[in-house]
Each structure stands twice: as structure tokens, then as C-alpha cells.
Please model this.
Amino acid sequence: MRKPLLAGNWKMNPVNRQGAVDLARAVTPAAAEHVARVEVAVFPPFCWLVPVASAIDGTAVGLGAQDCYWERTGAFTGEVSAAMLAGWCDWVIVGHSERRGLFGETDEQVARKATAALEAGLSVIVAVGERADEFDSGLTEQVCRLQLSAAMQPLQAADAGRLVIAYEPVWAIGTGRNADPAHAGATMAVVRQVLDVAFGREAAAAIRVLYGGSVNAANVASYVELESCDGCLVGGASLKPDEFSTMIGAVASVEARR
Ligand code: PGA
Model:
């Protein structure tokens, strides 16, 4: 059985250190209460990773970075390597649609980042998803298959245990327009098929597939109830500790009924 993961991607928030520490601390009670049924991780901006790591040390909340660079060290101004994150971060997200769309990240770069992160010993969330125009043209499956195949290409079956795929339709991110669970479920089932082919069914069974895009306390259960869904990647709602805590409880309730 795959334990559901609720991952809070804080993006470029909060703007000060104390806010980050407070936000992280505020979700630790719910994470502790439901630790048997839900894995919880937060993804602060790079500059708050160190203070947040101290704030959640010894709690049930995991820590991740929102991005990384594939080279280990060297003259790469502004970058932070996967190797630098390893050891005290558990997780990293690669290929988030904001990285792809706003910063021009390519499938090939996403694959290099995922490879470097896994090699460094991190667990990795690889995000994929179609844009609004692609959704409107019925290209969801095709786009996700292409993005996934490119990212999975250099990876090995042995990496599967530390790999998570997040299906995040770009048009659903930060818009309040969450995907219809039927659409999300069907797409996550396609993701699982691709993983089965890439790694073999047995190894792929360890990989969790998440939905992300305007997930909140009111709709989180409708995703995690889906057979093909192993949790959610949450942006905006992860900045509201009460709501995020409610979501942890909601995921635990669904899991308890399984
Ligand atoms: P959102 O962001 O929950 O604010 O839509 C999700 C994400 O970008 O991971």
C-alpha cells in the first residue's frame, strides 16, 4: 500500500523568515496526529530551508526544496545543487509548470534534475501537466505521456521508491479552477500506465501519483478517494495552516476507510 502524500509547495512565500518558521510549526500537530495514515512535507523557498529544517526537526513534517540544479558544484551563479540539499532535505520538486512555463525549463533539463536528485539520495516529485490550450485541444494524455517519458528516460527501476509524479494541469494551478476529479483520475491512470511500462509493474507500484491544481479543504477528498491518486501537491492552501491541517485530516479519513 502506498501511503498518501500531502505536499505543500509554498512557492515564493512567505516573504520573511519568521513567517516561514511559524507556518511550518503550525502544521506539525496535524501531521503528528495523522502520521500513521498520511505523509506530510513542506517545500519552502531556498532561503527558508535552514530555519524551517530546525523548526520541524523531530516532527512528522518532511522538508523539500522547490527546485535544484543537476551539477554538483561549480560556477553556476544563483543555482543550488541537489547534492547541497541532500542530507538535510528529504525532497525536491522538479519540473513544476511554473519552472517550465515562466523559466523555460525543458523536458531534458527536468530529466537531468530528477537524475541528479535521485543520485544525491533525495526523494523527487516530478510535475507534469498540460496547458489550457492543450487541454482544450484534447491533448492532455499526449502531453503528459511525452513529459513523463522524457523525465523517466534516464531513471532506473531502483529509483522508483523515491519517485513521485504530480499531475498538475497548468490551467488548474492557482486559478481556483480545480480539475474535475474524473479528468484528474483518468490522467493519473495514464501516468500509472506509463510508469508500469517504464519500470515494470512491480517497481512502479512503489511510485505515488499525486494530483495538484487548486486543491483545498473542500475538494481534497474527491481526489484522494480516486483509485489512481496517492495524494496531492498543494500550493495556495498550504499557506493557510488551518486549512492545510484540515486537509491532512481529510486525507487521513479517506485512508482510514480504504
Ligand atoms: P495551487 O498550486 O494549489 O495554488 O493551485 C499547486 C501547485 O502549483 O503545486
About this structure: The mean pLDDT is 97.
